[in-house]
Specification:
By secondary structure, the protein is mainly α. It is 53% helix and 2% strand. Bound molecules: zinc ion.
């Protein structure tokens, strides 16, 4: 275990993972609790098992090589079953790690202070641009939770309003989003839900469009094209941000 000597009482104060919280978000919360920098944490992981460090660097949310779990459990004291659940994908089409840069300001507002924010797995899929809880478009953010404390001060300063006053940003996003016609908002949400539920990708989904009850056929087809675009080349703004007036 790293991060100095801790009594069991001190470790008990590490919060539990939030529902659908991503692995990287919870490990950042652990680092904040333990007072360990990301760099030092990764050094310890690499020293314990170089393959585990490579796996976490390749994908900090869904590492592929199974050895990462042993190394991280040994270093952090987090139960392996908790780690397994954190690293379990919720559905198809996860974005590549550099593209996982979105968050819901409604969720951030509900969490409270920036250090208490948690990054949801629901913000890391190509098929979700709308928060299913708040029905708000996801926004690009510099970092979430303890990761916010780990970025450069200048970057924190530049994004202070967004991350420190998500209540204000939430109000303006709600106002802008509400100006989009309700049928279009419904169509986007419904299309994203269908894409999420479609087990074999966009082709069956395209067929299903023939039977949809909305008249906004062109909206659906444009949305489908967007959802099916390649996410291999780097970050891109969400559909919701593009259509937001
Ligand atoms: Zn939300």
């Amino acid at each position: 275990m790293i991060g100095g000597s801790y009594s069991s009482a001190e470790f008990a104060s590490l919060r539990d993972p939030e529902p659908t919280e991503s692995l990287s978000s919870y490990l950042a919360a652990w680092r904040g609790h333990a007072g360990v920098s990301h760099r030092r944490f990764m050094d310890y992981v690499a020293k314990s098992d170089p393959a585990a460090a490579v796996a976490l660097l390749d994908d900090p949310d869904y590492p592929k090589h199974p050895c990462w779990r042993d190394a991280v459990a040994k270093l952090t004291g987090i139960d392996q079953s908790v780690l397994t659940e954190l690293a379990t994908s919720l559905g198809p089409w996860p974005l590549l790690p550099p593209c996982r840069v979105h968050a819901c300001v409604g969720c951030l507002d509900d969490y409270g202070s920036p250090s208490g924010h948690a990054r949801s797995k629901m913000w890391s899929y190509a098929t979700w641009t709308i928060c299913p809880i708040h029905n708000l478009p996801l926004m690009q953010v510099p970092a979430v939770g303890w990761e916010w404390m780990e970025i450069a001060p200048a970057q924190r300063k530049a994004n202070a309003r967004l991350m420190l006053r998500p209540d204000l940003v939430r109000a303006s996003v709600e106002a802008a989003w509400s100006r989009l016609e309700q049928p279009v908002r419904n169509a986007i949400f419904h299309a994203e839900s269908c894409a999420w539920l479609s087990p074999s990708g966009p082709s069956p989904y395209r067929d299903a469009l023939k039977y949809n009850r909305f008249e906004d056929r062109y909206v659906w087809e444009d949305l489908l094209s967007f959802l099916c675009r390649s996410w291999e080349r780097g970050p891109a703004p969400s559909l919701a941000c593009l259509v937001c007036p």
